[in-house]
Design goal:
Blueprint lengths: L4 E4 L9 E8 L6 E7 L11 E8 L4 E8 L2 E8 L10 E5 L8 E11 L9 E13 L1
Antiparallel strand pairs: 1-6, 2-3, 2-4, 4-5, 5-6, 7-8, 8-9
Length: 136
């Protein structure tokens, strides 16, 4: 894993920055939508707890992905400022349970790696994805 996309602890999330995206709580059937709002650390320490969050900083420089699996948070921060413009081409997906939004965007990062199928011909392989916003 490189410095652009790395696993961090919940304590390392910048809670002073406003984010857009969503928080999905353990007791909810749909996520809580955010538009340029600050997120509190208490969201990750109390009940109901966050089972999933996708956050994009207001300046679109940082993307945070959070998943709670077996009572453990897996948090990934992507520093979008380190990517070149051609690497910032978002892929749009249909959204099913995001009230007020019909689609969401992700940045997909690929790297050239040796091919397992054809000797001597490298191929592009997906390495990570990062949340890049919601579309109404």
């Amino acid at each position: 894993m490189n410095q652009i996309h790395q696993r961090i602890e919940v304590d390392s999330v910048d809670f002073k920055v406003p984010y857009s995206g969503y928080l999905w709580y353990s007791n909810a059937s749909a996520p809580r939508m955010l538009e340029n709002e600050q997120v509190s650390k208490e969201n990750f320490t109390s009940l109901p707890f966050v089972i999933e969050a996708m956050l994009l900083s207001a300046d679109r420089q940082s993307s945070i992905s959070i998943k709670n699996v077996d009572a453990k948070y897996y948090v990934y921060r992507t520093d979008l400022a380190q990517l070149s413009p051609e690497q910032l081409t978002p892929v749009t997906y249909l959204s099913h349970r995001t009230p007020g939004f019909t689609r969401y965007q992700m940045i997909e990062y690929w790297e050239e790696q040796p091919s397992h199928g054809v000797e001597g011909f490298p191929s592009l392989q997906p390495v990570w994805t990062a949340f890049y916003g919601l579309i109404s």
